[in-house]
Amino acid sequence: MKRSVEDLRAEADWLAAIGEPTRLTIIRTLAIGVKTVTELAKACKSEVVNVSHHLGVMRAAGLVKCDRDGRFMRYSLLGASATATELELTHPSGTRTIVPLV
């Protein structure tokens, strides 16, 4: 099956969104459950503005989604399934990656 350049770029952007230390911390934190930016910033030991930037990259890549809850935005992972020790992330193209949770 031949993939278009756009499909390959989307897949590469998704992989790049995973491969950054702060984003890996966000991913591991969201594996536990839905969180706000403030909760994620605390877990990452980072400023809210920095975490917001990373979440924007992750949203654009299709790795996370957000839902409004009153005045808060709650973030969760897309295409994710977790066990006690690992998180499997799946891109719509079928590409998968495993992130250890321990």
Q: Which sequence of strands runs across the widest sheet?
A: 1-3-2
Provide the succession of SSEs: HHEHHEEEEE
Helicity level, as a percent range? 40-55%
Q: Count of DSSP helices?
A: 4
* Overall spatial form: globular
- The CATH architecture is Orthogonal Bundle
Q: What gyration radius follows from the Cα positions, in whole Å?
A: 14 Å
Q: Indicate the CATH topology.
A: Arc Repressor Mutant, subunit A
Instruction: Give average pLDDT, whole number.
Output: 94
Distance N terminus to C terminus?
Answer: 36 Å
How many structural domains does the protein architecture include?
A: 1
Q: Considering the protein shown, what is the CATH homologous superfamily?
A: Winged helix-like DNA-binding domain superfamily/Winged helix DNA-binding domain
The SS-based structural class is: alpha+beta
* Low-confidence segments: none
The tally of strands reads: 6
Percentage beta strand:
25-35%
The biggest beta sheet, please?
A: 3 strands, antiparallel
* Name of the CATH first level: Mainly Alpha
